[in-house]
Amino acid sequence: MAKKSFPLSKVYTLLEPGPVVLLTTAGDQHPNIMAMSWHTMLEFTPPLVGCVIGDRSLSFRLLTASNECVINIPTVEIAEKVVGCGNTSGAKIDKFTAFGLTPKPAKKVGAPLIAECYANLECRVVDTEMVARYGFFVLEVLKGWIDPAVQEPRTIHHRGCGSFMVAGETIRLKSKMQ
């Protein structure tokens, strides 16, 4: 099979790191929601997550000011709301109200959980060394929440240019990792 050249500007569509998440931050007027797919696990204990947030966004300003956020993991059932959050600015609208999402108080941080998401991770910023250059924050997960009623979450994964993939079948293979 002959392979063909692939455009460098589309490489990100091949290395999609995980599900689209909704990052919430606390704000003076109202909390904000940002759709994000540029994140990665960095460490298991304590759980550390790296994420990229552009320095022109409201979420960047709010996260820099508070050093706290919640990573909310939605499923395909609210995909249109997730995309709506990604296509609008929290500087202009209250995304909780605009997209019919429910803020719930967190236990360890000031940013709210999103009730409609099947999992929520309360986080604090622990490393800002690469923020100025790359917008890359390192977050420590302080508290995790999951809806036990959701047995096989169908998360959405951004493939670029309005294209998404939905997580599907779970397979089990022998592994030494737990």
From TrEMBL:
The keyword Flavoprotein applies. The keyword Flavoprotein applies. InterPro entries: Flavin_Rdtase-like_dom, Flavoredoxin, Split_barrel_FMN-bd. GO terms for molecular function: FMN binding; oxidoreductase activity, acting on the CH-NH group of donors, NAD or NADP as acceptor. SUPFAM superfamilies: FMN-binding split barrel. Keywords: Flavoprotein. It comes from the Bacteria. SMART domains: Flavin_Reduct (SM00903). Its cofactor is FMN. Belongs to the flavoredoxin family. This is Flavin reductase family protein.
